Amino acid sequence: MKRVKDLRVAGKKLLICAALIGGFTVSAPQGSADAAASPYTLYTTGSTADKVTTTSFGQVYMGGSTDVDKAFEWMIQKANGGDFLILRATGTDGYNQYVYDLAKSIGKPLNSVNTIVVDNLTQAGSDSSLINRINKAEAIFFAGGNQADYVEFLEGSQALTALNNRIQTVPFGGTSAGAMIQGDHIYDAISAGSRTLDSVTALTNPYSSLISFTDYLIQTPHNNNIQTDTHFEQRDRMGRLLTFMARNIQDGEETGTSAKGIGLNEKSALLVEKDGTAKVVTQPGSVNAAVYMAKSNQAPTRCVSGSSLTYNNISIYKLTDGNTFNLSTWTGSGGLSYTLNVNNGTISSSTGKVYGNTP
Description:
Layout: E1 24-30, E2 40-47, E3 58-62, H1 69-79, E4 83-88, H2 96-105, E5 112-118, H3 121-124, H4 128-136, E6 139-142, H5 147-154, H6 158-166, E7 171-175, H7 177-180, E8 185-187, H8 199-204, E9 213-215, E10 226-229, H9 238-250, E11 260-264, E12 268-272, E13 277-282, E14 291-296, E15 311-319, E16 324-326, E17 331-333, E18 336-343, E19 346-349
Parallel strand pairs: 3-7, 4-5, 4-6, 6-7, 10-11
Antiparallel strand pairs: 1-2, 2-5, 3-12, 8-9, 11-14, 12-13, 13-16, 14-15, 15-18, 16-17, 18-19
Helix pairs in contact: 4-6
């Protein structure tokens, strides 16, 4: 069941065009004489000729801030020398040389790294050349930004159909906003606009006007029942993730025991294999790098408009670098298991700390 959005973000971006160049190029924007009609800008590093390779599935949830090298290395291995596609709604070609050079450094050079910057969100989803690039990519990664842009670009589009078909057999992932769109349930930030939803606001009123959702956008083997959140501990977002889970139950999208959440700290990534097994990798030198796996065990006691949330017995499993988790069984190894309760909008923890303990 799809929930209706509260409003659409206004002031969408204007069209930008670029020139298609043959042979090899390094992060050059591409297009042609009729590029005024193009809803995206393309940057390519490496070969502009397509290469077909044998790939394998993998899903990366990354929490934002500095990218995790090991996560990209993992995707590169699975892309097997093919063409790596970055999708974003703002910015330019910042990932191209980084990913291209990283692949060379581990002895797994890529044929190319391409960045598509979606300039016209309403038109790009039906653009045949963009869809063709999705169909031919050996890896696909969503950059950070605003998840509202990605929802507008993808929802109900031909590009989304192509994406969901392609990511069944190639490595796929995203960071920050690019991880926010990967669960069954998405805090789409559409009704929030330029405002930021914090945990206190969410816990005080689970039906705040800042909260809106989109459901069932991305389809992967193990994202069922899941809501994600990023920049997690750094921006104290446990409260809003628990609120999102409570809303998923209250609004009829999940049962009291099916709602799940993944909270991703900055410089942290969860790498998911096709069989549901997963591991956490982090960027060296990171502080409080961790991933939180949350599961509901009962429906919220009170989740109504205008009143603070009461929602108890939520299981948390905190994973740090090298810890493993199985999304099929929702069990982990090497991490910290504890329980959270929310009473009248205030969170309490079985460990005495909302974010568990710090190793």
